[in-house]
Amino acid sequence: MLYLTEADVRSLLPMREAIHLVREGFKEFAAGRAQNQPRRRLILPEGSVLHSMAGSFGAYFGTKIYSTHRQHGAHFFFLLFDAPTAAPLAMMEANYLGQIRTGAASGYATDLLAAPEASILGVIGTGFQAESQIEAVRAVRPIHEVRVWGRDAARRQRFAEKINAAAAITAEEAVRGAHVIITATNARDPVLASDWIAPGTHINAVGSNVANRRELPADLIARAGLIAADSVEQAHIEAGDLIVAGDWSRVVELRDIPRGHQPDRITIFKSVGLGLEDVACGGWVYEKALQQGLGHRMTYS
Q: Looking at the DSSP assignment, which residues form a beta bridge with residue 68?
């Protein structure tokens, strides 16, 4: 059994490959040859939470298990198994795995739904997930202008400099006129207004995967011509943006959407993150680690 560190995973999983892997994972999901199990949470009185999510893809199945505490941080691990034999193959530190596969899913959705010539990206959020979201959109569209906003002005400026973007003074300035928008925050209430968003805009909303948190207002959800969810089943449990809005009539599975920009309609990708995505990327990381001799062997009996 192979043990891989965050540094190993980071060195082995480039964004463009992750987007390809996620795309293939959703194709197999649509064909009924891949599986996803929605996230489960065990919540303790002390404030600690244990999260688990699983999936299968190709020759592998696996589960990501992680613990979180608001004051003490988070710890992520991914376990990979061989599908034909159920043999354990690898354990990976999975913070970066989760970051890049979440970005890759948005990259895939953007490639399906955003205008081919989209060149302006507006971002609300300056944290860990925002960086990989921007990298993914840049991988699939000819972005020449990125505007970012976050509540902390100093952090906003540092983040903008790090990713070669402009630091916006307000959230509205960041997103008004953008062709693609990313919301990657831990906000409980909407971080943008519907009247800032023009028809033809594509939005990736990735910050909330809890039923009582949302980044998008209900009137923006109502204006959207199409809303893609990586899993509608899981979205019914976790996607506060959609649960609060209460209208599921235009929500479809990402796996079922054909490529095609809709210039007269707003499109939204509501990401909650799937175990399937972890397996698709984790299996590839494992194979590359074997080829390159990375990782540490663990004795298993």
A: 49, 74
- What does the buried/exposed string (b/e) look like for 105-121 if buried means 16 or more CB atoms within 10 Å of the residue's CB? bbbbbbbbbbbeebebb
Query: Distances from the Cα of 88 to the Cαs of 54, 60, 79, 97, in angstroms?
Result: 14, 10, 8, 18
For the domain bounded by 2-98+275-297, which CATH number is listed?
3.30.1780.10
What residue has token string 């400099």? 161
Instruction: Give Cβ neighbours of residue 64 (< 8 Å, ≥ 6 apart).
Output: 51, 52, 53, 54, 76, 77, 78, 79, 94, 97, 98, 275, 278
Q: What is the pLDDT of residues 39-56, one digit of tens each?
A: 999 999 999 999 999 999
* Residue 44: both structure tokens together: 């303790």
Query: Full-prediction pTM beyond 0.85?
Result: yes
Which residues does 239 contact at the CB level (< 8 Å), separation at least 6?
A: 208, 209, 211, 229, 270, 272
Which sign, positive or negative, has the C-alpha torsion 86, 89, 92, 97? Answer: negative
CA angle 182/184/189 to nearest 5° reads 105
Q: List beta partners, residue 44.
A: none
The CATH classification number of 106-270 equals 3.40.50.720
145-149 β-sheet, strand order: 166-167, 145-149, 120-124, 180-183, 202-205, 267-270, 226-229, 251-253
193-209 pLDDT tens trace:
999 999 999 999 999 88
DSSP state of 13: -
In terms of Cβ atoms closer than 10 Å to its own Cβ (0-12, 13-18, 19+), residue 133 is: buried
Report the interhelical angle of 15-30 vs 128-140 (nearest 10°): 80
Widest CA span in the chain? 60
| Domain extents in the chain | 2-98+275-297, 106-270
Tally of CA atoms within 13 A in the half-sphere of 57 that contains its CB: 28
Angle between helices 128-140 and 95-113 (to 10 degrees): 40
